[in-house]
Amino acid sequence: MAEEKSSRNFIQEIIDEHNRSGRFGRKVHTRFPPEPNGYLHIGHAKSICLNHGLAVEYGGQFNLRFDDTNPEKEEQEYVNSIIEDVRWLGAKWQGLRDDDPQAGVIWSSNYFQQMYDWAVELIRKGKAYVCDLSGEEVSRTRGTLTRPGTASPYRDRSVEENLDLFERMRKGEFPDGSKTLRAKIDMNSPNFNLRDPIMYRIMHETHHNTGDKWCIYPMYDWAHGFEDSIEGITHSICTLEFENHRPLYDWFINTVNEGRTDDGSGPWGRKIHHPQQIEFARLNLTYTVMSKRLLLQLVKEGHVQGWDDPRMPTISGFRRRGYTPEAIQNFCRDIGVAKFNSVIEMVRLENAIRDHLNQIAQRRMVVMDPLKVVITNYPADQVEEMEAVNNPEDASAGTRRVPFSREIYIERDDFMENPPKKYFRLAPGAEVRLRYAYFVKCTDVVKDPATGEIKEIHATFDPATRGGNNPPDGRKVKGTIHWVSAAHARPIDVRLYDHLFNKENPMEIPVGGSFLNNMNPNSLTLVNALAEPALADAKMGERFQFERQGYFCVDRDSTAQRLVCNRTVTLKDTWSKIEAQTPLIIKGG
RNA sequence: UGGGGUAUGGUGUAACGGUAGCACGACUGACUCUGGAUCAGUUAGUCUAGGUUCGAAUCCUAGUACCCCAGCCA
Fold first, then answer.
1. pTM metric for this prediction
2. A146 CA: nearest nucleotide by C1'
3. What is the percent of chain A where pLDDT is above 70?
């Protein structure tokens, strides 16, 4: 097989090296470890696709594990949405089953006992102590960027006392915040994470999974490495901000491994698995924000209609907008992965969904802003069923019938009384093709005498062009426009979505302002449109291309009486570019 | 001002001392019953300054810019 040498990203190179050296026995086991404190966004999709993709590529395994170590912030609603989103994206974790959404899902909280035991082991090894300092005192004694911290007065408690106190912390003898368990590392370290970090805090809080069993909860830094270790994760892939935590992550595992041996003959038994943490740059996209905090604010303050508002960069938002998992996967693959803090242009994502929908979406004709056209030489009582191709990119999608009659609607934009050069659509005396129907020529413009507003257009059709075909005389037209038969048109609701923010970087904020100042007031436009009858039986979630306009998805707000369609993305529009340039030329001249 | 990272066309991403390539965008043109799609072409880049070398994006030295770290968040 002639195999093309595909370029490798830095993570693949690291894994390849591990496989060469045999560090993990040529195994690859990755995971996606979300905290259930918000909805997943497109940045998480990058991580999911990366982790899952590596597992697939190397024939390894992939876990979905909830990092549920902080009961104060975590909720079941988020758990459910995250599971749904990861499934929808197509990532398959160990133990995934169709009949039970939670099958195979792992919880950090299941390891609480094991983590507790290791904490006791660290105390016994003299590497951890119970500290009575308040939060404020801890932060004051931690030092600054340039000054080392100072040791806690409780740093040198005896092993026995620490053991006793820690046990009583667990039993619930002390109030929240009164004590912590801290690792005894180095108050002089230039890395703050090593200045005696807190391992456990007291939190009398009911946990969504373990209930009231625990009133001490492990900190992320203490817990995370062990979660990976227990599961045999080989490559703990995370974002850049955890780079400074890697020495701590390694310290915890190495410290547990002190006095342990590979064969289990050491005083503390067998060594535990030590994963390799690898950090990559999180995804940033233009015209949106990606922080959970800000997304939560948009939802809570009602700037959008929920986490799955189609303008949100959440996975559920994109799903409702009409995005496909394939498009998101392709996007995540195409943007690559590196350590450089980059900002991806939104058009990359839009391009990915156009690409996929162009292949799979059936076409329909929908008029957003109707202008009546009367075809004066067409019989008043006649209706013809025109055959229309459902998808020119996919012959197997077949054809459908579209009714044609004397009175039709076209897009108001598709007529101009005084057209500029290069305008190919309808104008007085001009001829265009009605897609799949006939050539028509504009003969009259009927206006409201009072306002001058164009009320309707009169036109004549050429019977020799039936089906939209070129006539035998060889005549051609440059423009083809969409239409719906007036008598057969079905009203539908359409939601036109645009960027949520009108600045590439919404966090570029004027002094005293907020990112909310950068919200696009026109991110949603509601339209009453007229659709061809074939759209009437569209099902929820079904995706279509409305010819010449864009891709649309049937929203769950649809009723039997009225369809609601969300615009996923527009079609590329070169005319708008020409149009935008034209006035400049006039001005310049 | 301590520590940890990162710098390649407009935007991303390759190159592992040997012709700076690819994708997206932008711009031309061809084709077209969607001003869509498709096809062809053009455009444009190694953070700076020195050094090593026959040869440097890559190695060395010194700078510059940006990101992360002082939660009992993750």
1. 0.96
2. B2
3. 98
